[in-house]
C-alpha cells in the first residue's frame, strides 16, 4: 500500500447522468504543495468531497493517509490528522467564533490556535453569523490547522481574503510545508498556484489533463517581451525561433508619447542573446521582459479561456449543477459523520 498522503486510481464520481470526475489517477507526495487547478465546474470540489468521504465514488479508488475513502472507520481515524478548508465554510451562524473554536478544540484537539490567531484574527467574540466573508475564512483557517494536521485539503482557500491576508496565507502554507506538512490545494487562480505549489494537476471537464512541476510549466511558458521602437519596424522583424503570438502595433508609445514608433509584444521561449541582437537592430526605446502569466500558459498548452481577473474561465458551459444523485442529500450538508454544523474542519 502506498504511503503517500493522497492516492487516487481511476477515481470516478457521477451524479446520476451528470459528470463529476472521470478516471482520475494522481498521487500527492508527502511534503509537497499540490495544486489542483481547473476552471469552474471542472470537478475540483467533487474530488475533494470524495476524498473526505462526504460522498462515495462511483468507481475507482482513493486513499487518504492510507485509508480507503469507502472505509468509514478507517477514514474517520485518518481524518483526525487531516485539516479541511472549504471555500465557503459552513460554520454555525448562531455562536461566537470563540465557542466554535472551543468546540473544535474539544472535538479534535487544539495545539496551536493561539499562534494561528496571531496571524488570522477573526473577531472571536462576535457571532459567526455577523462575520464578513474574510473573517469567516480566517476562522475556518484557524479551525483547519489548530490540531496541527499532517495533510491539509483546501478548496479555493483564499477566496474572500483581502490581498494582504492572501499573502500571509501563502507565506503560512510555505512555512507549514517546511515543517513537513502536505497540501492538496484546489484553485482556479493561476497566480496563486504559481506562488505556493510544487506540482500542479490540471483538471478539465472532469479529467486530469496534465500533471507537472510548476517550475517546468514556468520554464515552458517563457517570457513576455514588450518592446517599443522610435521608428516603425517591419511586421516580420520578430518572427524568430521561440517567439509566439507576435503582435506588432504602431499605436501610441508609452515611452515616447508619440505615434511614430512601433510597439511589439510576444511570448519568448528561446535564449536571450539572439533576441537582444534582433531588438538592437532597430531603434529600441523601451523594453520589458516579464515572466509569462500562467493564464497564457494554460491557454497555449491546454486550451480554454481566462477571465480578465486572472482566473481560468468556465470552458464547460455546464449549468447542470442540479441535484441529481440521491446519495448527495447527506453529502450536501457538508459532512456525513454528524459534524454538520461546524463543517469547516476535518
Ligand atoms: N451535488 C451535485 N449534484 C449534481 N451535479 C453536481 C453536484 N456537485 C457537482 N456537480 C457537477 O459536477 C461537475 C463538477 O463540479 P465541481 O463543483 O466539482 O467543479 P469545480 O471544479 O469545483 O468548480 P468550481 O470552481 O466552480 O467550484 C459540474 O458539472 C457540476 O455541475
UniProtKB/TrEMBL annotation:
<dbReference type="Pfam" id="PF00005">
    <property type="entry name" value="ABC_tran"/>
</dbReference>
<keyword id="KW-0067">ATP-binding</keyword>
<protein>
    <submittedName>
        <fullName>ABC transporter ATP-binding protein</fullName>
    </submittedName>
</protein>
<keyword id="KW-0813">Transport</keyword>
<dbReference type="InterPro" id="IPR003439">
    <property type="entry name" value="ABC_transporter-like_ATP-bd"/>
</dbReference>
<feature type="domain" description="ABC transporter">
    <location>
        <begin position="6"/>
        <end position="230"/>
    </location>
</feature>
<feature type="compositionally biased region" description="Acidic residues">
    <location>
        <begin position="325"/>
        <end position="336"/>
    </location>
</feature>
<comment type="similarity">
    <text>Belongs to the ABC transporter superfamily.</text>
</comment>
<keyword id="KW-0547">Nucleotide-binding</keyword>
<feature type="region of interest" description="Disordered">
    <location>
        <begin position="309"/>
        <end position="346"/>
    </location>
</feature>
<dbReference type="InterPro" id="IPR003593">
    <property type="entry name" value="AAA+_ATPase"/>
</dbReference>
<dbReference type="GO" id="GO:0005524">
    <property type="term" value="F:ATP binding"/>
</dbReference>
<dbReference type="InterPro" id="IPR027417">
    <property type="entry name" value="P-loop_NTPase"/>
</dbReference>
